Amino acid sequence: MSEVAIDKWNIFIVMFLMSLIMSIQAPIFTPYAVTMGASSVLVGIMLSAAQLANLTGNLIAGPLVDRFGKRVFITLPMFVSGILFMGHGFISDTAGLLVLRTMNGFSLAFLLPAALALLSGYAGNSQQQGKNMAINGILGTIASIIAPLIGGNLGALIGYANTYFVIGAVLIVTFLYTILFLKDRQIIVVKKKNTLQTWSIMSLLARPTLHIVFLTGFAVMYIHGVIVYEVPYLTVEKGLSTVTTGQLFSFMAIGTLLSLSLFFIHRFDAIKRLIVGLFGMCMVLFAIFNDLVALQLLLLLMGFCLGVIMPAMAIAVTDEVSREGHGRAFGLMSAIYSLGMILGTFVTGIIREMISPYFIAFLIGMLVLAFIGYLKLHVPQSTHSKVY
Question: Could you tell me if residue 385 is inside a domain?
Answer without folding.
Answer: no
